[in-house]
Design brief:
The strands form two sheets. A two-stranded antiparallel sheet has the order 1-2. It folds into two domains: about 190 residues, Cytochrome c-like domain (Cytochrome Bc1 Complex, Chain D, domain 2, Orthogonal Bundle); about 140 residues, Orthogonal Bundle (Cytochrome Bc1 Complex, Chain D, domain 2), CATH 1.10.760.10. The relative contact order is 0.14. The protein is built from 13 helices and four strands. It has about 350 residues and is mostly helical.
C-alpha cells in the first residue's frame, strides 16, 4: 500500500467517523438487541454506544455482507472470501480473488470475535471495525468500487431503502455511515465462544490426556503470542518466514523500519478450519506450521526475539510434541459458530 493510499484511508476514516457520530439514528426500543459478551471474554473494544445492535440492523448487515452488488461489476461479495462454514476464512484461495479474477496480496483472515479486536487486517491498518468494509470495497484487487457509488446503487434499490428505514428510522436516504454501521452490527455478532476448550475453561467438560499434554506444551511455547481467551495478544511479529520482505507488513502503516516483516498475530480460534496459514498462505497444514517453528525459522533484523533462544532459531519441539499441540488446537474448533443458521 502506498503512502498516498494510507493517507487516503485515514481521510476516509476521519470523514466517515464524524458522519457516524452525527448521523446515527437511535432505533426504537423494541428493536434494540443487546450485545452480550461471553462471560469469560474481555470487555469489547467496539463503540456500541454509537451503534447498538438491532435485529433489523443485523439482518441488513448480513444482506450487505452477502451482496455482490457492492462490487464494481456485481460479481464479488464479502462472503466470497469469508465463508461461514470455515470461520469466515477462505480455504480455496491463497490470496483473495476480486473482480475480473484479480489476485490480492494476502490471505483472507477469519472473521470472528471482531467486537474484541483493537485493529484489523494483517498490518493493522484499520483501527475501527466500522471501516473494515471500506478497504474491501475500494481495494482495486478486491471489489474495486467507491463508497460513493455503492451508496448510489443502494439508494436505487427499493428493497434496501425499506431495510435501511427499518434499521435506522425515518431517514431521507441511505448514506455511507449507516451502511458501515449495518456491516458492523452483523460482524459484531459473529462470536465464537463455545469450543471444547471453552467448555473446559468453564468447567463443563474435560480434555483428553493428549489434549492436556498439548495444552501444557502450548502454554510453554506458544501462549506469549497467542494469549488469553482470544488466543492472540493482538500484537505484531516477524515469525521468521523470510529474510527479505516484498510485503513490508506493519511497516507499511507505521513507516518504522523496525516493523518490516511484522504481521498481526492472529487468533487461533477455529484454526483447524482456517487454512492456509500465515498472511501469505505459506503453509497448507498445521503440521507444516509447527515444523516451521521447530526447524524453519529464518533470521532477519526484525525477527521476534522470542524465536532466538541461545543462538538457536525457532522453538525446540519434537515431532511428538508438535502433534500434541495440534491435538490441543483441535479443541478450539467451535462447531456451533460455523453451523449457526443466524449467520
Amino acid at each position: 500500500m502506498s503512502n498516498y493510499k494510507i493517507v487516503y484511508c485515514l481521510l476516509v476514516f476521519v470523514v466517515v467517523f464524524l458522519g457516524c457520530e452525527n448521523l446515527l439514528v437511535e432505533p426504537s426500543k423494541d428493536e434494540k438487541v443487546q450485545f452480550v459478551a461471553p462471560a469469560h471474554f474481555p470487555e469489547p473494544t467496539y463503540t456500541f454506544k454509537n451503534n447498538p445492535v438491532t435485529q433489523s440492523g443485523f439482518e441488513l448487515g448480513k444482506k450487505l455482507f452477502n451482496d455482490p452488488r457492492l462490487s464494481r461489476d456485481n460479481s464479488v461479495a464479502c462472503s466470497n472470501c469469508h465463508i461461514k462454514a470455515l470461520a469466515f476464512a477462505d480455504p480455496q484461495h491463497d490470496f483473495s480473488v476480486g473482480v475480473d479474477d484479480r489476485i490480492g496480496i494476502r490471505n483472507a483472515p477469519a472473521i470472528q470475535n471482531m467486537a474484541f479486536m483493537k485493529e484489523f487486517f494483517w498490518d493493522g491498518g484499520v483501527p475501527h471495525l466500522d471501516f473494515v468494509p471500506t478497504n474491501a470495497i475500494e481495494n482495486p484487487l478486491e471489489m474495486d468500487e467507491t463508497l460513493i457509488h455503492v451508496v448510489q446503487k443502494l439508494n436505487g434499490i427499493e428493497e434496501y431503502r425499506v431495510l435501511f428505514r427499518k434499521a435506522f428510522g425515518n431517514i431521507d436516504s441511505i448514506n455511507a455511515p449507516l451502511m458501515l454501521h449495518a456491516f458492523s452490527q452483523y460482524m459484531n455478532m459473529l462470536i465464537s465462544a463455545n469450543s471444547k476448550y471453552d467448555q473446559f475453561y468453564l468447567g463443563k467438560t474435560q480434555l483428553t490426556q493428549n489434549e492436556q499434554k498439548g495444552m501444557a506444551l502450548f502454554k510453554q511455547h506458544c501462549e506469549t503470542c497467542h494469549s488469553g481467551i482470544l488466543f492472540t495478544n493482538q500484537g505484531y511479529a516477524n515469525n521468521g518466514l523470510d529474510t527479505m520482505f516484498l510485503d513490508l507488513g506493519r511497516a507499511l502503516i507505521s513507516e518504522d523500519g523496525r516493523d518490516i516483516g511484522k504481521f498481526k498475530i492472529p487468533s487461533l480460534r477455529n484454526i483447524v478450519l482456517t487454512k492456509p496459514y500465515m498472511h501469505n498462505a505459506r503453509f497448507a497444514t498445521l503440521e507444516q506450521v509447527l515444523e516451521h517453528y521447530a526447524n524453519g525459522v529464518k533470521d532477519s533484523p526484525t525477527l521476534d526475539p522470542r524465536l532466538k533462544n541461545n543462538g538457536k532459531l525457532g522453538i525446540s519441539l519434537s515431532k511428538e510434541e508438535q502433534q500434541l499441540i495440534i491435538e490441543f488446537l483441535h479443541t478450539l474448533t467451535d462447531k456451533d459458530f460455523v453451523s449457526n443458521e443466524l449467520f
